[in-house]
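Service request form, structural biology core

Requester: graduate student, group of Dr. S.
Request type: structure prediction, single chain
Budget code: on file
Notes: please return the result as C-alpha coordinates.

Sequence provided:
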Amino acid sequence: MENNLIQIGKSSKSASRRLATADATTIDTALKNIANSISDRAVEIIEANQTDINAAMNLNSDDHVIDRLLLNKDRIHKMCQGVLSISKLPSPIGIEYESKVLDNGIKLSQRSVPLGVIGVIYESRPNVTVDISALCLKSNNAVILRGGKESINSNICLTGIIRDCLLTTDLPELSVQLITETDRKMIDKLLKMDEYIDFLIPRGGSELVKKVSTESLIPTVVGGIGVCHTFVDETADLNMANKIILNAKTQRPSVCNALDTVLIHSQTAPKFLPILLENFSDQKVEMRCDTRTLSIIGNTQNPLIKKASEADFRTEFLSLTAAIKIVDSLEDAIEHINENGFGHSEAIITDDLSSAKKFVDEIDASAVFVNASTRFNDGGEFGLGAEVAISTGKTHARGPMGLKSLTSYKWVAVGSGQIRPD
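Core staff response, request fulfilled:
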Protein backbone atom coordinates (compact mmCIF):
# COMPACT_ATOMS: atom_id res chain seq x y z
CA MET A 1 0.00 0.00 0.00
CA GLU A 2 2.73 2.48 0.99
CA ASN A 3 4.95 1.43 -1.93
CA ASN A 4 2.08 2.09 -4.32
CA LEU A 5 1.61 5.57 -2.88
CA ILE A 6 5.32 6.34 -3.28
CA GLN A 7 5.14 5.17 -6.88
CA ILE A 8 2.19 7.52 -7.47
CA GLY A 9 4.28 10.35 -6.02
CA LYS A 10 7.30 9.58 -8.19
CA SER A 11 5.29 9.24 -11.40
CA SER A 12 3.36 12.44 -10.65
CA LYS A 13 6.60 14.34 -10.16
CA SER A 14 7.90 13.01 -13.47
CA ALA A 15 4.63 13.88 -15.24
CA SER A 16 4.67 17.39 -13.75
CA ARG A 17 8.04 18.13 -15.34
CA ARG A 18 6.73 17.23 -18.80
CA LEU A 19 3.45 19.02 -18.23
CA ALA A 20 5.23 22.20 -17.09
CA THR A 21 6.43 22.86 -20.64
CA ALA A 22 3.27 21.76 -22.48
CA ASP A 23 1.87 24.48 -24.72
CA ALA A 24 -1.46 26.10 -23.96
CA THR A 25 -3.10 24.97 -27.21
CA THR A 26 -2.44 21.29 -26.47
CA ILE A 27 -3.81 21.64 -22.95
CA ASP A 28 -6.94 23.44 -24.19
CA THR A 29 -7.51 20.67 -26.75
CA ALA A 30 -7.26 18.09 -23.97
CA LEU A 31 -9.77 20.00 -21.84
CA LYS A 32 -12.27 20.21 -24.70
CA ASN A 33 -11.85 16.48 -25.30
CA ILE A 34 -12.44 15.83 -21.60
CA ALA A 35 -15.67 17.85 -21.64
CA ASN A 36 -16.91 16.05 -24.76
CA SER A 37 -15.99 12.60 -23.43
CA ILE A 38 -17.71 13.20 -20.09
CA SER A 39 -20.84 14.24 -21.97
CA ASP A 40 -20.65 11.25 -24.33
CA ARG A 41 -20.10 8.80 -21.45
CA ALA A 42 -22.75 10.24 -19.12
CA VAL A 43 -24.62 6.94 -18.85
CA GLU A 44 -21.44 5.19 -17.73
CA ILE A 45 -20.79 7.91 -15.15
CA ILE A 46 -24.34 7.78 -13.77
CA GLU A 47 -24.15 3.99 -13.42
CA ALA A 48 -20.91 4.24 -11.43
CA ASN A 49 -22.38 7.03 -9.35
CA GLN A 50 -25.52 4.99 -8.62
CA THR A 51 -23.32 2.30 -7.10
CA ASP A 52 -21.95 4.93 -4.71
CA ILE A 53 -25.45 6.29 -3.99
CA ASN A 54 -26.77 2.82 -3.19
CA ALA A 55 -23.86 2.14 -0.84
CA ALA A 56 -24.43 5.46 0.95
CA MET A 57 -28.17 4.77 1.33
CA ASN A 58 -27.43 1.32 2.75
CA LEU A 59 -25.31 3.04 5.37
CA ASN A 60 -28.22 5.42 6.17
CA SER A 61 -26.09 8.43 5.24
CA ASP A 62 -27.55 11.90 5.86
CA ASP A 63 -29.49 13.60 3.09
CA HIS A 64 -26.79 16.25 2.64
CA VAL A 65 -24.21 13.48 2.03
CA ILE A 66 -26.42 11.93 -0.64
CA ASP A 67 -26.98 15.31 -2.27
CA ARG A 68 -23.27 16.12 -2.41
CA LEU A 69 -22.60 12.67 -3.85
CA LEU A 70 -25.24 12.68 -6.57
CA LEU A 71 -24.42 13.03 -10.26
CA ASN A 72 -27.29 13.38 -12.74
CA LYS A 73 -27.60 14.64 -16.31
CA ASP A 74 -27.88 18.26 -15.21
CA ARG A 75 -24.84 18.12 -12.93
CA ILE A 76 -22.81 16.29 -15.56
CA HIS A 77 -23.77 18.97 -18.10
CA LYS A 78 -22.62 21.66 -15.65
CA MET A 79 -19.32 19.80 -15.14
CA CYS A 80 -18.75 19.79 -18.89
CA GLN A 81 -19.59 23.48 -19.17
CA GLY A 82 -17.16 24.21 -16.35
CA VAL A 83 -14.34 22.38 -18.13
CA LEU A 84 -15.09 24.22 -21.38
CA SER A 85 -15.10 27.54 -19.51
CA ILE A 86 -11.68 26.74 -18.07
CA SER A 87 -10.35 25.87 -21.53
CA LYS A 88 -11.33 29.34 -22.78
CA LEU A 89 -9.47 31.18 -20.03
CA PRO A 90 -5.99 32.54 -20.78
CA SER A 91 -3.12 30.39 -19.59
CA PRO A 92 -1.71 31.61 -16.26
CA ILE A 93 1.76 30.26 -17.10
CA GLY A 94 4.69 32.17 -18.58
CA ILE A 95 3.35 35.61 -17.75
CA GLU A 96 6.09 38.16 -17.08
CA TYR A 97 5.56 40.88 -14.53
CA GLU A 98 7.63 43.07 -12.22
CA SER A 99 10.00 43.62 -15.14
CA LYS A 100 12.77 46.17 -14.74
CA VAL A 101 16.37 46.88 -15.75
CA LEU A 102 18.82 47.08 -12.87
CA ASP A 103 21.58 49.71 -12.66
CA ASN A 104 24.10 47.09 -13.82
CA GLY A 105 22.11 46.46 -17.01
CA ILE A 106 20.59 43.11 -16.01
CA LYS A 107 16.97 42.77 -17.10
CA LEU A 108 15.07 41.27 -14.16
CA SER A 109 11.54 39.92 -14.22
CA GLN A 110 9.21 37.51 -12.51
CA ARG A 111 7.64 34.75 -14.61
CA SER A 112 4.64 32.71 -13.54
CA VAL A 113 5.26 28.95 -13.30
CA PRO A 114 3.25 25.90 -12.18
CA LEU A 115 3.41 24.79 -8.57
CA GLY A 116 4.32 21.26 -9.72
CA VAL A 117 2.37 18.43 -8.07
CA ILE A 118 -0.81 19.32 -6.22
CA GLY A 119 -2.41 16.89 -3.78
CA VAL A 120 -6.10 17.24 -3.02
CA ILE A 121 -7.97 15.43 -0.25
CA TYR A 122 -11.73 15.82 -0.52
CA GLU A 123 -15.00 14.23 0.48
CA SER A 124 -18.26 13.22 -1.19
CA ARG A 125 -18.57 15.45 -4.24
CA PRO A 126 -17.32 13.64 -7.38
CA ASN A 127 -17.72 16.78 -9.51
CA VAL A 128 -14.70 18.08 -7.57
CA THR A 129 -12.64 15.39 -9.33
CA VAL A 130 -13.33 17.02 -12.68
CA ASP A 131 -13.12 20.64 -11.53
CA ILE A 132 -9.75 20.17 -9.86
CA SER A 133 -8.29 18.06 -12.66
CA ALA A 134 -9.26 20.69 -15.24
CA LEU A 135 -7.83 23.58 -13.23
CA CYS A 136 -4.59 21.73 -12.53
CA LEU A 137 -4.13 20.78 -16.17
CA LYS A 138 -4.89 24.33 -17.33
CA SER A 139 -2.20 25.63 -14.97
CA ASN A 140 0.30 22.94 -16.12
CA ASN A 141 0.21 21.15 -12.76
CA ALA A 142 0.02 17.41 -12.12
CA VAL A 143 -2.50 16.35 -9.47
CA ILE A 144 -2.92 13.48 -7.02
CA LEU A 145 -6.56 13.05 -5.99
CA ARG A 146 -7.73 11.37 -2.81
CA GLY A 147 -11.52 11.41 -2.74
CA GLY A 148 -13.72 9.88 -0.09
CA LYS A 149 -14.60 6.20 -0.10
CA GLU A 150 -18.26 7.11 -0.55
CA SER A 151 -17.54 8.37 -4.11
CA ILE A 152 -14.83 5.90 -5.13
CA ASN A 153 -16.69 4.33 -8.09
CA SER A 154 -17.65 7.73 -9.51
CA ASN A 155 -14.08 8.99 -9.13
CA ILE A 156 -12.52 5.93 -10.77
CA CYS A 157 -14.85 6.36 -13.74
CA LEU A 158 -14.18 10.11 -14.10
CA THR A 159 -10.40 9.91 -13.78
CA GLY A 160 -10.37 7.06 -16.30
CA ILE A 161 -12.14 9.29 -18.82
CA ILE A 162 -9.75 12.16 -18.13
CA ARG A 163 -6.66 9.99 -18.58
CA ASP A 164 -8.01 8.54 -21.82
CA CYS A 165 -8.21 12.09 -23.16
CA LEU A 166 -4.69 12.93 -22.02
CA LEU A 167 -3.33 10.01 -24.01
CA THR A 168 -5.04 11.18 -27.19
CA THR A 169 -3.49 14.65 -26.91
CA ASP A 170 0.04 13.47 -26.11
CA LEU A 171 0.02 14.82 -22.57
CA PRO A 172 1.43 12.62 -19.79
CA GLU A 173 -1.33 10.24 -18.73
CA LEU A 174 -0.15 10.27 -15.12
CA SER A 175 -0.68 14.02 -14.83
CA VAL A 176 -3.95 13.06 -13.12
CA GLN A 177 -3.84 10.21 -10.60
CA LEU A 178 -6.41 8.90 -8.17
CA ILE A 179 -5.58 7.10 -4.94
CA THR A 180 -8.04 4.20 -5.03
CA GLU A 181 -7.10 2.79 -1.62
CA THR A 182 -9.87 4.06 0.70
CA ASP A 183 -8.20 3.29 4.03
CA ARG A 184 -8.00 6.57 5.97
CA LYS A 185 -4.44 5.67 6.98
CA MET A 186 -3.49 6.68 3.46
CA ILE A 187 -4.15 10.29 4.42
CA ASP A 188 -1.54 10.07 7.18
CA LYS A 189 1.02 8.87 4.65
CA LEU A 190 -0.02 11.43 2.06
CA LEU A 191 0.61 14.27 4.51
CA LYS A 192 4.26 13.22 4.75
CA MET A 193 4.96 13.10 0.99
CA ASP A 194 6.68 16.47 0.80
CA GLU A 195 9.37 14.93 -1.42
CA TYR A 196 6.81 14.51 -4.21
CA ILE A 197 3.89 16.88 -3.54
CA ASP A 198 4.41 20.65 -3.71
CA PHE A 199 1.06 21.89 -2.42
CA LEU A 200 -1.79 20.18 -0.55
CA ILE A 201 -5.44 21.19 -0.52
CA PRO A 202 -8.05 19.73 1.87
CA ARG A 203 -11.72 20.02 0.92
CA GLY A 204 -14.08 18.68 3.54
CA GLY A 205 -15.31 19.04 7.08
CA SER A 206 -13.59 20.70 10.01
CA GLU A 207 -12.00 17.43 11.17
CA LEU A 208 -10.22 16.90 7.85
CA VAL A 209 -9.12 20.52 7.49
CA LYS A 210 -7.76 20.61 11.04
CA LYS A 211 -5.90 17.34 10.57
CA VAL A 212 -4.25 18.51 7.36
CA SER A 213 -3.33 21.95 8.70
CA THR A 214 -1.72 20.54 11.86
CA GLU A 215 -0.04 17.37 10.55
CA SER A 216 1.00 18.08 6.96
CA LEU A 217 4.67 18.45 6.07
CA ILE A 218 3.51 19.96 2.77
CA PRO A 219 2.45 23.61 2.36
CA THR A 220 -1.32 23.66 2.55
CA VAL A 221 -4.35 25.92 2.48
CA VAL A 222 -7.09 26.32 5.07
CA GLY A 223 -10.69 26.60 4.03
CA GLY A 224 -13.96 25.00 3.08
CA ILE A 225 -15.66 25.37 6.45
CA GLY A 226 -18.39 27.98 6.26
CA VAL A 227 -20.65 29.31 8.99
CA CYS A 228 -22.26 31.84 6.69
CA HIS A 229 -24.34 34.80 7.91
CA THR A 230 -26.80 37.21 6.37
CA PHE A 231 -27.61 40.39 8.31
CA VAL A 232 -30.92 42.16 7.64
CA ASP A 233 -30.27 45.81 8.45
CA GLU A 234 -32.95 48.23 9.64
CA THR A 235 -33.10 49.88 6.18
CA ALA A 236 -33.33 46.60 4.27
CA ASP A 237 -35.86 46.04 1.52
CA LEU A 238 -37.74 43.17 3.14
CA ASN A 239 -38.84 41.55 -0.12
CA MET A 240 -35.23 41.56 -1.29
CA ALA A 241 -34.06 40.20 2.06
CA ASN A 242 -36.59 37.38 1.95
CA LYS A 243 -35.63 36.43 -1.62
CA ILE A 244 -31.89 36.46 -0.89
CA ILE A 245 -32.17 34.51 2.36
CA LEU A 246 -34.37 31.82 0.81
CA ASN A 247 -31.88 31.40 -2.03
CA ALA A 248 -28.89 31.30 0.30
CA LYS A 249 -30.51 28.72 2.57
CA THR A 250 -32.61 26.50 0.31
CA GLN A 251 -31.14 26.58 -3.21
CA ARG A 252 -28.54 23.97 -2.22
CA PRO A 253 -28.26 23.66 1.56
CA SER A 254 -25.52 21.01 1.59
CA VAL A 255 -22.70 23.25 0.29
CA CYS A 256 -20.21 25.42 2.17
CA ASN A 257 -21.54 28.80 0.97
CA ALA A 258 -25.13 28.10 2.03
CA LEU A 259 -26.61 30.33 4.73
CA ASP A 260 -26.39 29.14 8.34
CA THR A 261 -27.35 32.13 10.51
CA VAL A 262 -29.79 35.00 9.93
CA LEU A 263 -29.14 38.15 11.97
CA ILE A 264 -32.00 40.66 12.08
CA HIS A 265 -31.90 44.25 13.32
CA SER A 266 -34.27 44.70 16.27
CA GLN A 267 -36.09 47.54 14.48
CA THR A 268 -36.75 45.28 11.49
CA ALA A 269 -37.52 42.04 13.31
CA PRO A 270 -41.25 42.61 14.09
CA LYS A 271 -41.95 43.26 10.39
CA PHE A 272 -39.56 40.75 8.85
CA LEU A 273 -39.85 37.73 11.12
CA PRO A 274 -43.43 36.82 10.10
CA ILE A 275 -42.39 36.94 6.43
CA LEU A 276 -39.27 34.85 7.04
CA LEU A 277 -40.97 32.28 9.25
CA GLU A 278 -43.78 31.71 6.78
CA ASN A 279 -41.41 31.16 3.88
CA PHE A 280 -38.97 29.04 5.88
CA SER A 281 -41.90 26.89 7.00
CA ASP A 282 -43.05 26.47 3.40
CA GLN A 283 -39.54 25.26 2.51
CA LYS A 284 -39.37 22.94 5.59
CA VAL A 285 -36.45 24.86 7.12
CA GLU A 286 -35.92 24.09 10.80
CA MET A 287 -35.43 27.36 12.69
CA ARG A 288 -33.19 27.57 15.78
CA CYS A 289 -34.31 30.86 17.34
CA ASP A 290 -32.79 32.96 20.09
CA THR A 291 -34.93 34.12 23.05
CA ARG A 292 -35.72 37.53 21.52
CA THR A 293 -36.91 35.94 18.30
CA LEU A 294 -39.14 33.54 20.22
CA SER A 295 -40.61 36.42 22.22
CA ILE A 296 -41.69 38.17 19.03
CA ILE A 297 -43.08 35.01 17.47
CA GLY A 298 -45.12 34.17 20.57
CA ASN A 299 -46.58 30.77 21.26
CA THR A 300 -46.57 28.60 18.18
CA GLN A 301 -47.18 24.95 17.50
CA ASN A 302 -44.88 24.98 14.49
CA PRO A 303 -42.61 21.93 14.98
CA LEU A 304 -39.92 23.58 12.83
CA ILE A 305 -39.35 26.35 15.41
CA LYS A 306 -36.96 25.46 18.24
CA LYS A 307 -34.97 27.32 20.86
CA ALA A 308 -31.37 27.85 19.78
CA SER A 309 -28.36 26.80 21.81
CA GLU A 310 -25.12 28.79 21.81
CA ALA A 311 -23.55 26.05 19.68
CA ASP A 312 -26.15 26.61 16.95
CA PHE A 313 -24.60 30.00 16.19
CA ARG A 314 -21.25 28.36 15.40
CA THR A 315 -22.64 25.44 13.38
CA GLU A 316 -22.31 24.78 9.67
CA PHE A 317 -25.62 22.96 9.23
CA LEU A 318 -25.29 21.68 5.63
CA SER A 319 -29.02 20.98 5.75
CA LEU A 320 -32.38 22.76 5.87
CA THR A 321 -31.63 24.25 9.28
CA ALA A 322 -30.93 27.89 10.14
CA ALA A 323 -30.16 29.81 13.32
CA ILE A 324 -31.97 33.14 13.82
CA LYS A 325 -30.82 35.92 16.13
CA ILE A 326 -31.90 39.51 16.77
CA VAL A 327 -29.23 42.20 17.22
CA ASP A 328 -29.57 45.87 18.14
CA SER A 329 -27.14 47.43 15.69
CA LEU A 330 -24.87 47.01 12.72
CA GLU A 331 -21.93 46.98 15.15
CA ASP A 332 -23.49 44.07 17.08
CA ALA A 333 -23.98 42.14 13.83
CA ILE A 334 -20.36 42.69 12.80
CA GLU A 335 -19.11 41.63 16.22
CA HIS A 336 -21.25 38.47 16.17
CA ILE A 337 -20.07 37.48 12.68
CA ASN A 338 -16.38 38.09 13.38
CA GLU A 339 -16.60 36.10 16.62
CA ASN A 340 -18.67 33.18 15.31
CA GLY A 341 -17.86 32.99 11.60
CA PHE A 342 -15.04 31.12 9.91
CA GLY A 343 -14.13 33.80 7.37
CA HIS A 344 -16.05 32.20 4.51
CA SER A 345 -19.10 34.08 3.09
CA GLU A 346 -20.96 36.92 4.82
CA ALA A 347 -23.77 39.18 3.57
CA ILE A 348 -25.68 42.33 4.50
CA ILE A 349 -29.07 43.41 3.18
CA THR A 350 -29.32 47.21 3.43
CA ASP A 351 -30.32 50.38 1.60
CA ASP A 352 -27.78 52.43 3.56
CA LEU A 353 -24.50 52.91 1.68
CA SER A 354 -22.60 53.85 4.82
CA SER A 355 -23.79 50.65 6.56
CA ALA A 356 -22.78 48.61 3.53
CA LYS A 357 -19.31 50.21 3.51
CA LYS A 358 -18.80 49.64 7.23
CA PHE A 359 -19.86 46.01 6.89
CA VAL A 360 -17.53 45.41 3.94
CA ASP A 361 -14.62 47.15 5.66
CA GLU A 362 -14.94 45.45 9.04
CA ILE A 363 -16.08 41.90 8.27
CA ASP A 364 -13.14 39.49 8.20
CA ALA A 365 -14.08 37.00 5.48
CA SER A 366 -12.91 35.71 2.12
CA ALA A 367 -16.03 37.13 0.43
CA VAL A 368 -18.47 39.81 1.59
CA PHE A 369 -21.76 40.45 -0.19
CA VAL A 370 -24.02 43.48 -0.22
CA ASN A 371 -27.62 42.75 -1.22
CA ALA A 372 -26.71 39.39 -2.75
CA SER A 373 -26.74 35.71 -1.79
CA THR A 374 -23.72 34.04 -0.21
CA ARG A 375 -24.23 31.25 -2.77
CA PHE A 376 -22.23 33.37 -5.23
CA ASN A 377 -18.95 32.64 -3.42
CA ASP A 378 -17.92 30.15 -6.06
CA GLY A 379 -15.15 29.94 -8.65
CA GLY A 380 -17.55 29.49 -11.53
CA GLU A 381 -19.75 32.39 -10.46
CA PHE A 382 -16.69 34.61 -10.01
CA GLY A 383 -15.56 33.89 -13.57
CA LEU A 384 -12.69 31.60 -12.56
CA GLY A 385 -14.10 28.61 -14.44
CA ALA A 386 -14.17 26.54 -11.24
CA GLU A 387 -12.21 26.34 -8.01
CA VAL A 388 -9.93 23.86 -6.30
CA ALA A 389 -11.08 25.16 -2.91
CA ILE A 390 -12.36 28.24 -1.13
CA SER A 391 -9.55 29.47 1.07
CA THR A 392 -10.37 31.23 4.33
CA GLY A 393 -6.71 31.75 5.14
CA LYS A 394 -4.83 34.96 4.44
CA THR A 395 -1.65 33.78 2.75
CA HIS A 396 -1.04 32.82 -0.90
CA ALA A 397 -4.76 32.72 -1.80
CA ARG A 398 -8.10 33.77 -0.33
CA GLY A 399 -11.61 32.97 -1.48
CA PRO A 400 -12.26 30.77 -4.52
CA MET A 401 -8.92 29.40 -5.71
CA GLY A 402 -8.75 29.47 -9.49
CA LEU A 403 -5.87 29.29 -11.94
CA LYS A 404 -3.77 32.11 -10.53
CA SER A 405 -3.81 30.45 -7.11
CA LEU A 406 -2.18 27.36 -8.64
CA THR A 407 0.92 29.19 -9.81
CA SER A 408 4.15 30.41 -8.31
CA TYR A 409 6.89 32.42 -10.02
CA LYS A 410 10.57 32.35 -10.76
CA TRP A 411 12.95 35.28 -11.07
CA VAL A 412 14.55 35.54 -14.50
CA ALA A 413 17.71 37.63 -14.84
CA VAL A 414 19.09 38.27 -18.33
CA GLY A 415 22.54 39.82 -18.49
CA SER A 416 25.37 40.47 -20.94
CA GLY A 417 28.33 39.21 -18.95
CA GLN A 418 27.78 41.04 -15.65
CA ILE A 419 29.56 39.74 -12.57
CA ARG A 420 29.04 40.82 -9.00
CA PRO A 421 31.92 42.90 -7.65
CA ASP A 422 33.46 42.25 -4.24
